[in-house]
Amino acid sequence: MAKMWKGRFTKSATQSANEFNASIQFDQRFYAQDIQGSTAHARMLAKQGILTADEAEAITSTLAAIKEDIEDGKIEFTIENEDIHMNIEAVLTERIGDTGKKLHTARSRNDQVAVDFRLYMRQEIDLIIALVEKLKEALYKIAEGNQETIMPGYTHLQRAQPVTLAHYMLAYYQMFSRDASRLTDCRKRLNQLPLGSGALAGTTYNTDRDFLAKELDFDGICPNSIDAVSDRDFALEFLSDASILMMHLSRFCEELIIWNSTEFGFIDMDDAFSTGSSIMPQKKNPDMAELIRGKTGRVYGDMITLFTLMKSLPLAYNKDMQEDKPPVFDAVDTLKASIGIFTEMISTITFNKDTMRAAVKNGFMNATDAADYLVRKGIPFRDCHEIIGRIVLHCVNNNTAIEDIPLETLREFSDKFDEDIYENITAEACVNAKKSKGSTSFASVREQLETIKNSK
Question: Which of 205, 215, 282, 325 could crosslink 40 through cysteines, CB 3.0-4.6 Å?
């Protein structure tokens, strides 16, 4: 099959060169975007008198038919035509002859692929944001139903202070909210039209890029033709945002895996999102959570791949950039699958509230509140810290808890202790003593939930 640029060359590419050079194996994913961009381009050419109205109609109607045929599996792409752009153009030309050859007037594959990529990214970001919103809704429902479910809060994976399960879920809600916000910002920045930039220098034809931007629903045009075809920072930004989102999912999965262990027993994973062992009949493994945790590294790898690919490229377009799409495609697929399965998984988890509440008893999680009690009695906090530290050491040596120490023994450490110390260091008291905005108290969590509800 003759190449589109055959006029310059005296020899045909070898089969191995064709196979190595081709990108149709992966960029065929752009078929809808390529046809969308080409349709708008044809209409612009007709508007500017570069094509006749009849020529534009023949091109756009045939492109619509080609799209249907691709989706019906009636078109077979070839590596000889290299990429999705030339495959579609070859089919178009085969069907309408020389008129099809006119479509590429005033554009290059460089600006063609750039607009395809941005159209694709825009669509996928919208789908990913929608998935994140479903995940947030699932977390909100868990939080709403567990406003007074008390559990241990941790630092260094050591029991620290009692919190509510609702507060814990809302922490991740906020993380995923920022993830959605980052993706929204990314979408806004990428929504500038590169089409019309040509190979790098623009075009001699009297085109209308503003018309193209309106046709394709871009917010504006890329103001510099070299930049428009040669950078992929919009894809790098997406991969960075995707990596952060996957990191949040991975952290959450790590906690669920720990909570699901016999040692913790805070949750039970639904059977539908667990697997068994090929040798140990008793096993019920949290494989979906483990896979999401593992796939996070895959998305990180996609990001590093594109950063490495772009880091030394001179302006403008280089063939290296053909390899920009596989890591993005992989990250998109991995991210969408991970968010979807995580949302299903978290929605079916059983929270063992009694086990969580019982765990608050151990670990001296009321120590900070005991120190705050002494502060209210007029002792400087640093002195209170030392007093309670000695009380905790006493508890460790005597296998007891602060709330179980008799008052007379507490007064050996400080004469400021009174009977009311015990009511101030219950789990409920520790939770509700938090007065700062955004805290774990029942009232604060209700306020957080109400704020989220009012913002929807």
Answer: 215
Catalytic residue of the set 156, 278, 312, 436: 156
Tell me the average pLDDT across 409-427. 95
User: Among this protein's residues, is 23 annotated catalytic?
Assistant: no
Tokens of 8: 């310059």
Greatest C-alpha distance within the chain? 101
Q: Angle CA(426)–CA(432)–CA(434) in degrees, nearest 5?
A: 115
Highest average pLDDT, of 4-13, 21-30, 58-67, 274-283, comes from 58-67
Catalytic residue among 12, 61, 261, 277: 277
Let me know if 385 is a catalytic residue.
no
Question: Strand 192-193 vs strand 220-221: parallel, antiparallel, or unpaired?
Answer: parallel
Report residue 274 as tokens: 């667990």
Q: Alpha helices, DSSP H only, in 31-149?
A: 31-47, 53-71, 84-96, 98-101, 109-144
Contact 150, 355 (CB under 8 A): no
Please list the residues that pair with 159 across neighbouring strands: 154
Q: Whose CA is closest to 82, among 2, 24, 33, 32?
A: 24
CA distances from 83 to 68, 79, 146 (A): 19, 7, 53
Q: Looking at residues 424-437, what average pLDDT do you find?
A: 94
The helix/strand/coil state of 126 is: helix
In this prediction, residue 13 has a pLDDT band, given cuts at 50, 70 and 90, of confident
Residue 297, pLDDT > 90, answer yes
